Amino acid sequence: MKNINLFCFGFGQVAKSFVNKLSSKNFKINLSTTGRDKTCQKKINNISYNNYKLDGDHFDLKLIEELKQSDHILISIPPINGTDIVIKNFSKIIKKCNSKWITYLSATSVYGNHNGEWVDEQSEVHPTSKNGKDRLIAEKDWMSLSHEEKMPIQIFRLSGIYSSKNSPLARLKSRNASIIKKTNHFFSRIHIDDIANILFKSLSSFQSKEIYNISDDKPASSEEVMLYAVKILNVQKPKRINVDGIQSEMLRNFYKDSKKVSNKKMKKFFDYDLKFPTYVEGLNNIRDNLT
After folding, report:
1. Any residues with CB less than 8 A from the CB of 290 and at least 6 apart, and which?
2. The domain spanning residue 150 has which CATH number?
3. pLDDT for 154-195, tens place per residue?
4. What is the pTM of this model?
């Protein structure tokens, strides 16, 4: 049994999926996390852990001692009001940790619009959304720490995450789905299980100062994916709407960018075969396990 002292800044679906993966591999996990609520003890997979309050610049000072003891750090908190609160409040402490592995979860929104063409880690980054711009600034800050302080940092640029709880199938079942009409709009996605698997692989295959796109093999339009979901559920097609009819500003911004995200570097370096190479396998698996 292997031991791991893991500190998670943010404990959303990706971090939880990673912990579940570690648990399935019989790791003995000393886990600490952060959340916006007051500090409390929680449990996941029979693992008791402290979830420390971290809300902007306000945090429970007790988390500092736990952070100092960590040898693995996962950062999944996005920038808040343009600021990476982890770097702002904890970079000096992280420098003093004996961490073997620090992973910052970014997003492929940093690439911006590439008119449906392929992008890889060497492609130009010119984000169009505020989220993408903030992510890119945070990436540069983490990379600066890695270079200047010789800290073991890798960056994962995540494509659109889907899972059993967040997928076109779930939206169709809740009658909260629509088909967005947008010509030549491509984006990439990744199943949450594959993210967890790659995070796990990176524990033993780690190279600092590297950036990896985390995406599947088949970029596609949201319309293509939704129509496939309709087909395998055998339900009526949801209404079609134009991009201009989208009420959410964040979602409208999403449709400004069209790109296909290459995963070649990820697959080669981690020697990883995707569990769900495309949305077809991913959605079929979610359908087969619907409760």
Report:
1. 164, 169, 173
2. 3.40.50.720
3. 999 999 999 999 999 999 998 888 998 888 899 999 999 999
4. 0.96
3-state secondary structure at position 8: strand
* Sign of the alpha-carbon torsion through 274, 275, 280, 286: negative
Residue 147 lies in a domain: yes
Is residue 87 one of the residues assigned to a domain? yes
CB atoms within 10 A of CB 149: 12
Residue 106 near residue 156, CB atoms below 8 Å: yes
* pLDDT tens-digit readout, 192-236: 999 999 999 999 999 999 999 999 999 999 999 999 999 999 999
CA distance 129 to 277: 28
| One-character DSSP codes across 141-195 | HHHHHHHHH---EEEEEE-EEE-SSSSHHHHHHTT---EEE-TT--B-EEEHHHH
Q: What is the pLDDT of residue 148?
A: 84
Q: 146 in a domain, yes or no?
A: yes
What is the model's pLDDT at position 1? 66
Residue 15 lies in a domain: yes
Q: Which parts of the chain have pLDDT scores under 50? A: none
Query: For residues 215-228, b (16+ Cβ closer than 10 Å) or e, as one string?
Result: bbebbbbbeebbeb
Give the residue numbers spanning the domain of 115. Answer: 3-161+188-217+260-275
Q: How far is CA 283 from the centre of its chain?
A: 18
Those residues with Cβ within 8 angstroms of residue 19's Cβ, 6 or more apart along the chain or in another chain? 6, 8, 29, 31, 44, 45, 47
Task: List the structure tokens of 81.
Answer: 């009001």
Instruction: Quote the CA–CA distance of 201 and 73 in Å, as a whole number.
Output: 15
Q: Are 261 and 213 in contact (CB under 8 A)?
A: yes
- Please state, as a whole number, how many other Cβ atoms lie within 10 Å of the Cβ of residue 78: 16
How many structural domains comprise the chain? Answer: 1
